[in-house]
Design a protein that fits this description.
The chain is of the alpha/beta class. About 45% of the residues lie in helices and about 15% in strands. Bound molecules: zinc ion (ZN).
Length: about 350
């Protein structure tokens, strides 16, 4: 499995420094690759596509400090103004920077799938307030756990647990608390259902919804003249995120993604990819989860008198070790991320899907 990128930005103890890595993906296409995912708070990649009339920006990030720096860099690299910001989906690590783009380029439309705007309107308008309530408590509890060497419930922290809390959670949350203060919610104001083509002058860009996957409103952006595909969180490396996702449909959506004649992919998180290996692995893993869960539910239902499977039962049955090893190896932080951000939510969602299809067939 390869996800070949360009030079890796050096890691430091802060999410914001050195921040993102700037990658020239193709002629006038620049990806700002977000700091590597460490397991606490994340921000997504931002991509800028330049034409001779105007620019398109795909995703605006989570941390206002980083978005500000990206805007400065865009102004430095391009004479033209952005014509649109596109939000690939509703998770805040992809659009919380919208307000800063709006401020810098007044009147600029912010484009998304109709479902993305709906989700933001429905559940994210008070995001900064919610976060500023939750995160001080997380920080306090984490510091206390590290100090006492145990969790609130009394279980003792391993050395790795302690290291994870002190090296990842505490610095990430401390940074995030500063960022929350600077956030302003600016939802997309121009929506579409299937897709829209945008003319940037000497270059056309296609913004497309291929189906549900990571969220209900995932969009991808394709630049045909340079064969660059910006995938949003349909593709995230080194380990996907699956909270609230549509596991079986995601497999189908990735098949459509695979049909593009792209030479490079900019994922939602992680380095630029120059082949499909990683996408194929993710696709195989999602299919494996859907199949394993479906089979477990069917096998159980076929035995008369059996009580229905619980989510806990299903977690014990689904086997992902080979995929996990291939993706994150033995890295403790990444193994946690694989379990918490991907495997657990993906299995839970696949279980819901299997139960739903079982109910419909009976
Ligand atoms: Zn994301």
């Amino acid at each position: 499995m390869t996800y070949m990128g360009t030079t890796k930005a050096e890691m430091s103890s802060s999410l914001l420094e050195p921040g993102y890595e700037t990658v020239d993906v193709a002629d006038r296409i620049i990806a700002f690759i977000a700091p590597a995912f460490r397991g606490a708070v994340v921000t997504g990649n931002t991509t800028v596509i330049g034409g001779n009339d105007s620019l398109m920006v795909v995703d605006s990030g989570h941390f206002p400090s980083l978005t500000k720096r990206i805007i400065t860099q865009i102004r430095h690299r391009f004479q033209q103004p952005p014509k649109f910001v596109v939000n690939t989906h509703w998770h805040p690590d992809h659009w919380m920077g919208n307000s800063l783009f709006r401020e810098a380029f007044p009147g600029m439309p912010i484009l998304s799938h109709v479902s993305t705007r709906k989700m933001i309107q429905r559940s994210m308008l008070d995001y900064p307030e919610q976060m500023s309530k939750q995160f001080p408590a997380i920080l306090r509890d984490t510091k206390e756990a590290v100090r006492n060497g145990k969790r609130k419930d009394g279980t003792v922290l391993t050395e790795e647990d302690k290291r994870y809390r002190s090296q990842v959670i505490i610095p990430d949350v401390e940074n995030f608390l500063i960022e929350i203060e600077k956030m302003q919610v600016e939802p997309p104001n121009l929506t579409f259902e299937e897709g829209v083509n945008v003319d940037l002058g000497d270059r056309e860009v296609r913004v497309l919804h291929l189906g549900r996957g990571n969220t209900a409103g995932d969009v991808v952006v394709y630049v045909p003249d340079s064969k660059i595909l910006v995938t949003g969180d349909l593709v995230v490396a080194p380990t996907p995120f699956a909270s609230g996702s549509y596991i079986s449909e995601w497999v189908e959506t990735l098949k459509k993604l695979r049909a593009f004649d792209a030479t490079s992919l900019v994922p939602g998180h992680g380095s630029v990819m120059h082949d499909w290996d990683y996408v194929d692995t993710v696709s195989g893993m999602l299919k494996s989860i859907a199949d394993q869960v479906q089979n477990a539910v069917e096998r159980n239902a076929a035995i008369p008198g059996n009580s229905p499977l619980s989510l806990e039962d299903v977690h014990k049955i689904v086997e992902l070790e080979t995929y996990e090893k291939g993706m994150v190896g033995e890295d403790y932080f990444l193994k946690l991320a694989f379990q918490r951000a991907f495997a657990q939510p993906a299995i839970a969602r696949a279980f819901l899907e299997a139960k739903f299809s079982e109910e419909r067939s009976t």
